[in-house]
Amino acid sequence: MEDQNHLKEPHHPSEASRRIVRSLKAKADARRTRSEKFADWLTSRLGSVKFLLANVTWFGVWIVLNTGLIPGITPFDPYPFGFLTMIVSLEAIMLAIVVLVSQNRAMKVDDLREEIDLQVDIITEQEITKLMSLVILLLQKNGVDISKDMELQEMLQPTDTGKIQKILEKQAFSEH
Predict the structure, then answer these.
(1) How far, CA to CA in Å, does 165 sit from each of 120, 159, 174?
(2) Does residue 160 sit within a domain?
(3) Is residue 148 part of a domain?
(4) What does the DSSP 8-state code read for residue 146?
(5) Residue range(s) defining the domain that contains residue 141
(6) Quick check: is 7 in a domain?
(7) I need a surface site. Which of 7, 31, 54, 137 has the fewest CB within 10 A?
(8) What is the pTM of this model?
(9) Does the residue 84 lie in any domain?
């Protein structure tokens, strides 16, 4: 018996596209710089409930220690907690930068996916138009008159992607 694994098709039509998207993400992940990998790692750790709870605990302890509520402990950063404010501000700046680095990288991957989607959509539109033409040939061969179907006639015209692009650009730039 011959090995026919290479002839097998995906079980579901979207399985192949999911595999392509995963592959795209994996390739983009593999090309990350060290700083992007570090930013992604930090974002995954710092964007968690554990980090939130650690911050709430840390700030809570800091505030309790510095309000003089515990006898025998002299506040080292009394109200209005100037040192704590500086630490929180620095933490916010660092977190914002880390998140922006990760978002910028994710945006690059999303832009590439959008471009792939657009190209696939254009190819699909061309294929559907070709299939419609073939169906019309079959209908005509069988004596079916479709000449009065204006909607069908319009559908058979190639999509003017340049015209669509100009309309979308005009809409996008007129909103600003």
Answers:
(1) 16, 11, 14
(2) yes
(3) yes
(4) -
(5) 14-174
(6) no
(7) 7
(8) 0.56
(9) yes
**Region for 12 from its dihedrals, namely left if φ exceeds 0, alpha if ψ lies in -120 to 50, beta otherwise:** beta
Count CA atoms closer than 13 A to 176's CA, side-chain side.
4
Q: How far apart are CA 36 and CA 100, in angstroms?
A: 10
Inter-CA distances, 121 with 72, 117, 118, Å? 71, 6, 5
Query: How many separate domains does the chain show?
Result: 1
Tens-binned pLDDT, residue by residue, of the chain (176 aa): 444 444 444 455 566 656 666 676 777 778 888 888 888 888 888 888 999 999 999 999 999 999 988 999 999 999 999 999 999 999 999 999 988 888 888 888 888 888 888 888 888 888 888 898 899 899 989 998 888 888 888 888 877 878 888 888 888 787 65
Contacts for 42 with CB less than 8 Å, ≥ 6 apart: 98
Give SS3 for 53.
Answer: helix
State the residue for tokens 């995906």.
Answer: 10
DSSP track, 115-129: HHHHHHHHHHHHHHH
